[in-house]
Structure formats: structure tokens, C-alpha cells
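call fold(seq) -> C-alpha cells
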Amino acid sequence: MMLITMLTTGTRGDTQPFMALGLELKKKGYRVRIAASEAYQDFIESYGFEYAMLRGDVSKIIESGAADDAINADNPLKFFSSLKNEKMMGMMVNIQKDLHKACKGADAIVYHPGAAIGYFAAKEMNIPSILASPFPMTPTKDYPALIFYDRPRFGKIYNKLTHHIFEWGFWKVVSGPLKKYWVQQYGEGPNDFSCPYPKQRTAANPTIISSSPTVFSVSKDWPEHVHSYGNWFMDSDHSYQPEEKLERFLKAGEPPVYIGFGSVGDKKNAGETTALVIKALKLAGKRGIINTGGSGMNQTEEIAEDILFVKDIPHEWLFPKMSAVVHHGGAGTTAEGLRAGVPSIIVPYGNDQFAWGRKIHELGAGAKAIPRKELTAEKLSAAISYTQVNEIQSKAQEIGKQIRAEKGAEKAAQVIINTLETFGNK
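ret:
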């Protein structure tokens, strides 16, 4: 049975799409090994995948503050410079060894852009590599790269240039620790050590994108072997059972508004943010579910009947039951909100979150984004009320229906299978 290794990086939202892709490959008779943070070992193994450990609990790394600059970078320059801080670099060098080890014995390597060692390991082993991106990053004239998306526009040539800058900048960040590890291992850097992303556009080395064509259309100027068929969704977390108090709350009134900021919330100001959110819900006259599973909000002692505090509820289960979802605008959370067919209000903290905030509003599926630095109870209340009008609700439902029909993971899995066949026939 052929083995496909998947190299992920980041939080659960970064890891889960790879699991969705892996489930489709397992259906076709392939073994799948997933390299991910040790925090997700039980989750990954519960679906029958082989697990390869990446040292370090990503949630604890975030809580430590080591990644604060990267998480909250609000312009492209800050994004690239933040990822090169000393603490982050040290952790990234250690992780290269684990990523490389996970590739041993594989017949193909599917890798996140942040795990670019996958390309060089595949070359070393003479097997195909597949770049698996959570967002469109192949250069196009149609729109700017995500970290430039919510900034001034200067035309098609500029749009394409921003993608090249993004590829170069991303490579500059990951290449340092990768080369340092490789030299430690072999005494020299990998052969043809240069940016791998532009090389992942051939039949034997394609790119697949976990993104919906409904949200970012497939660009006509993309090469043939760049594939975007839809997000890679898991149907449900089969281990999840809702608490009785949550089921009672959902049945007790109209659909509530969900508010949660994932792992990017500011722990120091958690009390202030919680009070702001509660005030916004009251001003809008809405029931609310507040997720304190990250570090951005706290449960208060005074618990109102129309507000429920929760932790770590699967978005795919909860979001379809909401009247709107307020979140930080991570790619995975944004996709789940769109799939659920409910309007979103994005409160971006940094990086690509500003792009998703702008895109949601452009699609007509939510309110205009409110950057965290500008968030007030009054602005959030107005945004919540905006999402409750029929036009916005209907548009969100229409987009959700389109996204649910796309079968992105199934089609992307077939690209991987075709790649193995192409490579075997070379």
C-alpha cells in the first residue's frame, strides 16, 4: 500500500484541512501519515492516520508570546520580519528534523508552504512533491497576494508583483532554518537550493489549493497544474458530543451570534474584550455564544441568560446553528463560516486576516471588517445588526450552498493520485 506523507504547520485550523484531504486518500486505499504539532496527536490518530510528531505544542508556543509579532503583523514588512525573530528561528530549525523524519518511506510528499523541506526531501528520495496551500499564492494579475489584498490597488502588473514578493518573502523566512538543519545533517545545503514554490507547477510536481473558486476564482493566467477546486472540509469531529447546557441554550431562543478569536486573542486584555463583546450583544439585542477556548476572552462571574460561554466546540457543528459569526479571520475559520451559510464579521489582528475580512464584505456575505485596534462595542453592535438583514443572510446562504457542493478535498486527492501515476510513468 502506497504511503503519502503530509507535512503541516500551525494550529488545528491549519492541520484539519490536511486531515480532510487524507480521509479522501484513505478511501482510495492509500496509507496517510500526517506530521503535526504534538497537541494534535490524539485527534489525528482517532481518524486512523499514522502520526509523525513535530516537537512543541503550538498552542503553548502561542501562549508563551514567542509568536506574538508574527500573529499581529498588520503589514507585509512586519509579517516577514516577525517570523525571523530569534525564538521562532530556533524552534523552526528543530522542527525541520521532525519534518524530514516524517518523509522516510513515503511514496509522495504533500506539504504546507511553511514546510518547504518537503520539496527537497522529495527530490532527495526521487518521489513527487505536491505543494498544498491554504490560500492562493500562485502569481496572478487578477488580485494582489493575500498580505497585500487589503491595501491600495495599483493595477494588474502590481497585483502579479505582490505574489512574487510574497513567494520570495515566505521563502526567505523558511529557507534559513531549513538550510541550517540540512547542513547539520549532510555538511552542505540541498541541491538546487532555491525557492520551491514556482517549481510546483508541473504534472509531476503540482500545486493544490484549499480554497473555494466561489471566493477566489480560478485565474486564467495560472499554469495548468495549479488546482483550486474548493476547501478541504471534514464533515464532523466524530468524537464531539455537545454538553446538555449548550443544547438547551440553542433550543431556548432565536439563533445566537457566535464570537471567538481563536488563538490570536490578547490574553492581557481578555477581560476588557469580553466586556466589550457582551455590551455589543446587548446593544444589538442578540443572544450570544462566546468562545473562551483561545486566550482572548474570559468567562465572567455574572452570566446572563442570553449569553453562554463555551470552549473548543467544532466550528463545523456549531456555525450552521448561528445567525452570524464574529471571529479573527483565520483562513480555516473564515471557510467554515462561509460553508455554514451564515454571515461573518471579521475582526482581524494581523497577516492574511485583513484579506479575508475584505473578501467577506466584497462577497456580500458579511459586514465590513473591524480591525482589532479599532474595535468598540458600538461598532461591533452595528456590524451584528447589519448581518441580520435579509439581503446579507440570503447571500451568505447562497454562497454556503455553492461551497458545500464543491467537493474540494475529493478532487484535490485525485490530483495527488494522478501525480503518482504520472511520476511512475516517467
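The mean pLDDT is 89.
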